Amino acid sequence: MHIPSHKNPQINSAINPFVTGSVNPNITGSINPLITGSLNPIITGSINPLITGSINPIITGSINPFLTGSLNPTIHSSVNPGITLSLNPNISTNISGAFIYDLQLTPLSFTVEASERVILIFDSHANWTGFAVSNKKNGYNTFDLQNHWSTYWVPNNQGNFNIFTPYGKWIGLVIK
After folding, report:
1. Which residue(s) pair with 159 in the sheet?
2. Which of 1, 12, 14, 59 could form a disulfide bond with 89, CB atoms 3.0-4.6 angstroms apart?
3. Contact yes or no for 134/116 (Cβ under 8 A)
4. Helix or strand or coil: residue 102?
C-alpha cells in the first residue's frame, strides 16, 4: 500500500501513540474506555450494538451493506477499490480513506467511506473484510462480513481513532 507520510505513524511522530502520549489510551485516560465509562459499550448501552438497534446492522437494514446496495462494494462500483482505482492505495498515492494499523504500527487495511454512517474496510489487497457503523460517541463499531461485532473505534483527540475489542483491550489505530 502507498501510505502518505502524514498518515503513517512510523514516520509521523505526532500520530504515533508511543511517542505522543495524548493519543495513547494507556497514558490519556479520557480516551480509554476502561477508565472513561461513557466510551465503554459494556457500560454505555447507547454505543453497544447488542443493546441499541439503530447501530446494529442486523436490526437496521439501512446500515447493512448486504441489505443496502449502495453500501455494498460487490454491487456498487463507486465504493469498490478494485474498480474505482482512486480508492485503492495500491494504485493511488493519496486515497481519501483511513489506514488501519496494529499496535506494532504495521498497516493492515484501509477504509472507503460508503455513506455518512458506514465505512467499508478492505485488507491490503483490496479485499472487502468488514465495515464500521457510526455510534453515538463520534466513534464506530466494526462488523465482519457475517455481521458480527468485532471492534469499536474511540476518537483519540487528533481526529483519528484507537481500536478496542468489545471488552476494552486496545489493539490498533485508525489514521484518517
Report:
1. none
2. 1
3. yes
4. strand
Q: Are 22 and 159 in contact (CB under 8 A)?
A: no
Closest CA to 172 of 147, 58, 164, 84: 164
For 16-84, give the DSSP string.
-TTT-GGG-TTT-GGG-TTT-GGG-TTT-GGG-TTT-GGG-TTT-GGG-TTT-GGG-TTT-GGG-TTTS
pTM of the predicted protein model: 0.97
- Residues 40 and 48: their CA atoms lie apart, in Å, by 8
**Annotated domain spans of the chain:** 5-175
* Tens digits of residue pLDDT in 1-52: 999 999 999 999 999 999 999 999 999 999 999 999 999 999 999 999 999 9
Phi-psi region of 74 (alpha: psi -120 to 50; beta: other; left: phi over 0): alpha
With vertex at residue 5, the alpha carbon angle to CA 176 and CA 131, rounded to the nearest 5 degrees, is: 30
Identify the DSSP state of 14.
G
Q: How many helices (H) and strands (E) does the chain have?
A: 0, 8
Length of the chain: 176
DSSP 83-96: TSGGG-TTT-SS-S
